[in-house]
From TrEMBL:
One of its GO terms (biological process) is carbon utilization. Reversible hydration of carbon dioxide. This is Carbonic anhydrase. It comes from Maricaulis salignorans. Keywords: Lyase, Metal-binding, Zinc. Zn(2+) binds at residues 44, 46, 105, 108. Binds 1 zinc ion per subunit. The keyword Metal-binding applies. The lineage of its organism: Bacteria, Pseudomonadati, Pseudomonadota, Alphaproteobacteria, Maricaulales. Belongs to the beta-class carbonic anhydrase family. The keyword Membrane does not apply. GO terms for molecular function: carbonate dehydratase activity; zinc ion binding. InterPro entries: Carbonic_anhydrase, Carbonic_anhydrase_CS, Carbonic_anhydrase_sf. It catalyses: hydrogencarbonate + H(+) = CO2 + H2O. Its EC number is 4.2.1.1.
Amino acid sequence: MTQGPPHKLVAGYRRFRSKSYPAERALYQSLSEGQKPHTLVIACSDSRVDPVHIFGAHPGDLFVVRNVANLVPQIDLDGGRHGVSAALEFAVERLAVEHVVVMGHGQCGGIEACAIGLDKLESQFLGPWLEPLQPARAEVIARVGEESLATVCDQMELLAVEHSVRRLHQFPFVTEAIRNRGMQLHGARFSIASGILEWMNADGVFVPVVP
Ligand SMILES: [Zn+2]
C-alpha cells in the first residue's frame, strides 16, 4: 500500500512553490522546451554534497549522476544495466556537455568501507559496487601504510577521483568529444568540514579553488 508524501517533503515542496518556483517560473517555462546543461557532474549520493548547492546552480545548468563514492566503473559492453555509462552517453552524445566533473568528498562512507576492507563489509550490493576502488586502496596503502585510517581515506578520496577520470577515457564517445569539440574532463573534491573545493590539476595534484 502506498502512503501519502512525508511531512518534511511536503513542507519543503510548499516552500519551493511559494519562494523558489515563482522566482524562476520563466526559467522553468523556457526549460520545458528542452535542456542544455553545460556540465555533467558525477558526485556521491551522500546527502551532504549536493552539486547544485555547491556550484550555486540553477535548473538546467547541471546534468547530475550520483552514486555511492562517485564512481565511474570500467566500461562494460555486456549489455547490462550500467547507469553511469548510460547517463554519460546521454550527457556527452545528446546534450553535448562542455565539461564532465567527477567530484569526490571528505568523510565518504563508500571510500571508508573500502579502506577498512570490502571483505569485512556485509552487503549484497555495496561490496561489488565499490570493487573499482581496490586499486586506489592498494596504491595508497603502499604509499602511506595502513596505520591511519583517516590518512588512507583522505588519499583514497583523491586517487579514486583520478582513477574515475582516467576511466572516462575508455568511452570512445568521450575521447571523440574531447578531440572534436574540446569537451573537458575534471576531478574535484569537496570538504564537508571546511567547505573547501579542491580541483585536480594536470599533474593530478588537488589545489583549492579560491572562494
Ligand atoms: Zn561519499
